[in-house]
Structures are given as structure tokens and as C-alpha cells.
Amino acid sequence: MGGSGSGSWYRWNTKTTIEDGLTIDLCKLIRQKLVVPGKHVSGPLIWNRVSDGEKVASIGYEANLITPDTAWMRLHYSHKGKPIDYRVHLTTTRPNYGGLRWWFLCPSNGTRVAKLYAPPNGDIFASRKAYNLAYQSQHETPMYRHLTTAQDIRQRLGGSTYTGDPFPAKPKGMHWKTYRKLKDKSERAAQRSNLAAAAYFGW
User: Fold this and answer.
1) Strands 40-48 vs 55-64: parallel, antiparallel or unpaired
2) Strand 112-113 with 101-105, pairing
3) Residue 104 scores a pLDDT above 90
4) What distance in Å separates the CA atoms of residue 182 and residue 132, rounded to the nearest whole number?
5) Are the CB atoms for 90 and 105 separated by under 8 Å?
6) pTM of the predicted structure, to 2 decimals
7) 148 and 161 Cβ atoms separated by less than 8 Å
8) In whole angstroms, what is the distance from residue 12 CA to residue 19 CA?
């Protein structure tokens, strides 16, 4: 495959899921202060295996968020022995609760997204739609699909993914209406997962 703009990304297997490759989450990078609005920073991005913490991949990056209108993030690494180096442009929106929310502009189709993905044979990081990736939950049974929904919301709010734990508190800056909506969605999903499990196992 070629570099950015090669046009070969669209042929990726539609059965591949986002969990099969690497993900760059811009909101997470900002929370971790690896990317800092108003500053120009650089360093490595490292992916570790969840089970044992072993490093599985790393790339270099540089992010210039000094001026929102011209912000960008440069990614550089090797893919199958070939050097890859390109910039991903960034943009912002203004949420109802104030401040700025940062987004990637997909280098393949220009859409505004919070995350970029690189499947196993993908040479660049691009949006889920650019690679036509599925979510792993689309291949799961209803029991696990609903459980994944409940856990993802709990994790997004900074809490434990174990549905038996107390539901996480409202994050600072989030509207109560948004928080209650997410809480209701998570609890409904957890209940549906339990019902599906009961039906499956005959409880």
C-alpha cells in the first residue's frame, strides 16, 4: 500500500473490526496531556497489550495546537519497512457546556472524527468509515453486545467497567441532562444483557 492519499484504503476487508488494529483517540490524548491545546508538543505514542502490559506498537508524533484554525498532528513511523510521514489536520467545535472540543479531519475522506484507526494492513490512520471497519460488538451475541455498551459508557465517565460497582459520578463540565441520559442508557443496556444471559443460560 502507498502513503497518505494512495487511494487503496477503501479495499480493506469489511469484516475487520476496530479492535483488530491500532486506535488514536484525540480526546484521550488531550486528557493524558500528550496533546496540549495551545502548545506544540512531540513524542512517542505507545500501545500496550491489555493482558500483560507488553508493548505491541509505537509511532512518533508531533502536534501543533497553538492556533485552532491551522492545528495539525504529524504521524511518522514505518509500515512493512517503508517510512510513513504525514500530517492530520485538526478542527474544533464549541460544545454547549463551553470550551473547545478537538477533532481529527480524516486524511482519507476529510470527515470530522474523534478517533483514527489503522487496521493490520492499513498504512495510515484514518476514520472507521474510510476503512469500512465494524465494531467488535456487531459480531457479538445480544448478551455481550449490551454488556459492551454498558461498560463503554461507564469507562467514558471514568468509572469501573464492572456493572456491579456504583455508577461513576458526573464528570466536571458535563451537563446533568447528558449525564442522566448516559446513565439511563448504560443501566438499560446492563439490564438487557442480564435478560439475554438469563434466556441463554436458562436461569
Assistant:
1) antiparallel
2) antiparallel
3) yes
4) 27
5) yes
6) 0.60
7) no
8) 15
